[in-house]
Design goal:
By secondary structure, this protein is of the alpha+beta class. 36% of the residues lie in helices and 36% in strands. It is built from four helices and ten strands; from the N terminus they run H-E-E-E-E-E-H-E-E-E-E-E-H-H.
């Protein structure tokens, strides 16, 4: 589509979920690229707070949000290591109207190639809007998008090929929680994101993998239809025989 209508490139990329890309800052730190850390053609590293390519007037968060951003990147870096055992994470903060603010928590994990798995990656995008409700409470609105892509080898006899599976899932959640300081904001967002990811992992497992396997099994049996029918007939005969013995 981009090649066909190049003048609509910006609109297309903004309306279609794109896999997260990884960049490296001048200090060698890996970080994730997205619209929330982009200014023109440059991207801001959450570790150094500088743009690449360099920008003299690039947009950066105000001091109080930058302090929260640094803290959140350290916390979610540990979260990523604990739950994903690898990958890359980045957190970006920015201002909204009326003392509100927002942040984006990004996590990307590429799967290692092994056995029949040829390629795979998991991209998690969490956007949290925070609206103060007073000195000790705030409203949080979390929007999470999970993008999953998997390619596996598919060999039957002398025939070989590959199977690709990809899709995205988006969920929202709103909560009003107690706050005491900057750390409590990060803690509240962390708990919401952790709970959301756990629930969405279960959904992905059931919908994408379970349902896909069921559909594939219904369309194609590697042992052949006749063999499957024989097994079904044998199972039915055994069940009937057991039922007769119980009556006897």
């Amino acid at each position: 589509l981009v090649d066909l209508v190049p003048h609509l490139t910006e609109d297309l990329l903004n309306s279609i979920d794109q896999p997260l890309q990884i960049g490296k800052d001048a200090q060698g730190n890996s970080y994730l690229l997205c619209d929330y850390n982009r200014d023109g053609d440059s991207y801001r590293s959450p570790w150094t707070n500088t743009y690449d390519p360099p920008l003299d007037d690039g947009v950066v968060p105000p001091p109080h949000l930058r302090t929260m951003e640094v803290f959140a990147n350290d916390i979610f870096d540990s979260y990523r290591e604990m739950y994903y055992e690898g990958g890359v994470s980045s957190v970006y903060f920015w201002e909204l109207e009326a003392e509100s603010f927002a942040c984006c928590v990004l996590i990307k994990k590429d799967a290692e190639e092994k056995k029949k798995l040829q390629a795979g990656n998991w991209d998690a995008i969490h956007v949290v809007e925070v609206r103060p409700l007073g000195p000790k409470r705030a409203a949080y609105k979390l929007t999470t998008t999970i993008m999953l892509r998997i390619t596996t080898a598919h060999n039957v006899g002398k025939n070989s090929g590959s199977l690709g599976l990809s899709g995205s899932l988006t969920r929202q959640k709103e909560e009003e929680l107690t706050i005491t300081d900057i750390a409590s904001h990060v803690s509240n967002m962390g708990r919401m994101i952790e709970d959301m990811e756990n629930r969405m992992r279960d959904t992905v497992q059931a919908v994408y993998f379970g349902k896909t396997k069921s559909v594939v099994d219904g369309l194609y049996q590697s042992q052949g239809v006749s063999m499957v029918q024989k097994k079904d007939m044998l199972a039915s005969a055994l069940m009937a025989e057991m039922a007769l013995k119980k009556k006897g």
